Amino acid sequence: MFNKYDVIVVGAGHAGCEAAAVAANLGSKVLLITMNMETIAQMSCNPAMGGVAKGQIVREIDAMGGYSGIITDKTTLQFRMLNSSKGPAMWSPRAQSDRKRFAEEWRLALERTPNVDFWQDTATSLLIEGNKVCGVKTSLGIEISSKAVVLTNGTFLNGIIHIGEKKFGGGRTGEKSATGITEQLVELGFEAGRMKTGTPPRVDGRSLDYSKMEEQWGDEKRGRFSYTNVELPTEQRCCWITYTNSEVHETLKEGFEKSPMFTGRIKGLGPRYCPSIEDKINRFAERDRHQIFVEPEGWNTVEIYVNGFSTSLPEDVQYRALTKIPGFENAKMFRPGYAIEYDFFPPTQLNLTLETKKIENLYFAGQINGTTGYEEAACQGFMAGINAHLKINEKEELILKRAESYIGVLIDDLVTKGTEEPYRMFTSRAEHRLLLRQDNADIRLSQIGHRLGLINNERLEKVNQKIKNSETIVAYLKNTSIAPNAINSILETQGTPGISQNVKLFQLITRPQIGFENLRKADSNFDSILNSFDQETVEQAEIKVKYESYFEKELEIVDKMKRMEDQIINPEFNYRELVSLSKEAREKLMKIKPRTLGQASRISGVSPSDISVLMVHMSR
C-alpha cells in the first residue's frame, strides 16, 4: 500500500505544510500525515498572519520560495503595515485572513504539489534502527518507511483542554490529542516539558453594536507579503477596537477561584507576550482597561474573533464578562475560550538544522520546540523540510545566520539558549534588525532560494532588477544638484532650514523632515525617474539613502562578528578536557555542542573569558 518515502511530515499545521511543500518542491517524495484532512493549515487561534517581526518572517519564507506569503495574500481580509510611524527596521506587515479560505488555499497548494501524498491517521511512534529514524507507525498499526521524519505536532502531544474546572484531552477544540510519541522519545533519552497557550471565545457578529467601537480600516495603499504577483482581493473588511473596564474585570475575578491557571491545574508555562485576560488583570492590576480587537473570521461568516480576551475561565463567567464590554451587551457566544496544555521538547536538543542530536534524520519544527505563533512555526517547518531533503541526498545543510534573517535569529535562539516559555519573535531579539527589514527580504534571501531551485531565473532577475533600479535612483540623488530657489520654499514648509547655494539632492534627503515626495515636487526629472519604477523599488531606494551611514556601521559590526561565526568547532570536541574553562561553561558547551565559536559566545553561562580560552585553544 505504501512505498518508501523520502520524508514523512507528521502534522499539517503551519510548520507541517511548509515542511511538506518545500521538501516536495526540492524533489523528495513526501507523505503528510494528519489526524484530520479537513483541518490542514487550520488557524487555531487568531485568523491573521504577520505582525511585529512576524511579518518579516513571512516575507523571508516567501523570498526563499515558501508558500505562507502567497496563501496569505490570496486570502487577506485586511492589510496593515504596523509601526509605519517608526523607522523602517520596525515596519511590520500584518494581514487579517479569511480563516476558511486560508486553509482551503493551503490544501489546494499542497494537492497541486506532485510529490506530496496524504494520509489521515495518527502517528503513534517512530520506527528507529540504531540511532536513525526510518519511518513511523500509526494508530491503525501501519508501518510506513522513510529516510527522514519531521515532527510538527503542534499542541496535540498529550494535549489537555481547560475551561474552568473542566478538563479533557484534546489537541484543539473538537479534536483528540496524540499519545505515544512523547513517551517513546522520553524513553530514548529526550527531555520533555509542558507549555500552555489559549484562545478567546468566538461570538456572533450580528449580535454586536459596532457604533460603540472604534473602526479600524486597513491601509489605503495596501501592501502584500509575497514578492510574486499573486492577485490580491479587491476589497478589505473593517475591524474594530473596544476596551474592557473595571466592571468586566470584577466579573472575571469572580471566576478566579475556578481558573485552572490560578488553582495550579495547569502546570505548563504560558506565553508572556500574549497573556490571558485573567493573567493581564492579575499582572497589571493598576490598569483599569485593556484593548480588545474585534476581528471578523472571514468574508462569508458572521463569526468574530475577540482578540485580547484569551481565557480559560468557566464559560458562564466568560459570557457575563463579555456582555459588559462596550458593544458586546447583547453578544451571543458561539464557543468559549479555553487553555490548552501540551508537551514540548526543549530545543537545545537540536542541531541548527533542526535535526535532533540523539536520533539522526529526525527533525522537530513548530510548537514542539517551544515556540508560539503561526509564523514562527512556518519558518521552522520550512527550514526542517529543506534540511531533511538535503541530508538524505548528502548535500550541504542550510543554516541561516543571525545577520541575514529573522529565521536565523529564531533558530539560533532556540538551539543555543533554549526556552522555558513559549518563544515569540520580536524585532528586539535581532541585534542586526536594521539590516533585516521586511522591504529587503528578497534581496537578502532570494539568491539562496534560487541556489536550492525554489526560485526560478525570472524571479531572481526581478530581484536583481529591483537592486539595479534602486541604485539608479540613489546615483541620481548623489550626482544631481538643486538650486536654492527651486527647493527653499519646500524646505521651509517642512520646518527645515533653506540652502544658500546649490547642493546635491542626496544631502537634502538625509534630513529627517525631507522625503522623496518633497524632492519630486522640486525636480521634475526626479519625479519622472520615480514614476518609471514600482513602489517597492522607490521605497528601497529611499530607505537606502536615508539610513546609509547606519547601514555602514551595522555592516562593520557584522564583519567583526563574522570571524567568530566562521570558526567551526568539531562537534565531537570534549570541552571537559579544557580545565581553563569554568565548570558551568564546560557543562553548557557539552550539552549544546555549538557549531561555531559565535554560537558558543551566545550560550547562557559561557563568559567572555571562556570564549577567550576557546579562541586560544582553537588557534593552536
Please explain how this structure is put together.
This protein is of the alpha+beta class. The chain contains 21 helices and 22 strands. The strands form five sheets. Strands 1, 2, 6, 7, 8, 9 and 20 form a seven-stranded mixed β-sheet that branches. A six-stranded antiparallel β-sheet has the order 14-15-16-17-13-18, with no helix packed on it. β10 and β11 form a beta hairpin. α12 packs across α17 and α15 (516-522) crosses α16. It is globular and about 80 Å long. The termini are far apart.
Summed up:
With 620 residues, this protein is α+β, with helices and mostly antiparallel strands. Helix content is 36%, strand content 18%.
Task: Give the tags.
620 residues, alpha+beta, 7-stranded mixed sheet, 6-stranded antiparallel sheet, 22 strands, 18% strand, globular
Write the layout of secondary structure elements.
Blueprint: E1 5-10, H1 14-25, E2 30-34, E3 48-50, H2 54-63, H3 68-74, E4 76-82, E5 92-97, H4 99-111, E6 116-120, E7 123-129, E8 132-138, E9 143-151, E10 160-163, E11 166-169, H5 181-187, E12 193-199, E13 202-204, E14 214-216, E15 239-243, H6 246-253, H7 277-283, E16 291-296, E17 303-307, H8 315-322, E18 333-335, E19 338-344, E20 362-364, H9 374-392, H10 406-417, H11 441-452, H12 457-479, E21 481-482, H13 484-493, E22 503-504, H14 505-509, H15 516-522, H16 524-531, H17 535-546, H18 548-565, H19 583-592, H20 597-601, H21 608-619
Parallel strand pairs: 1-2, 1-9, 2-6, 9-20
Antiparallel strand pairs: 3-5, 4-5, 7-8, 8-9, 10-11, 10-19, 12-19, 13-17, 13-18, 14-15, 15-16, 16-17, 21-22
Helix pairs in contact: 1-9, 2-9, 2-11, 3-4, 6-8, 11-12, 12-17, 13-15, 15-16
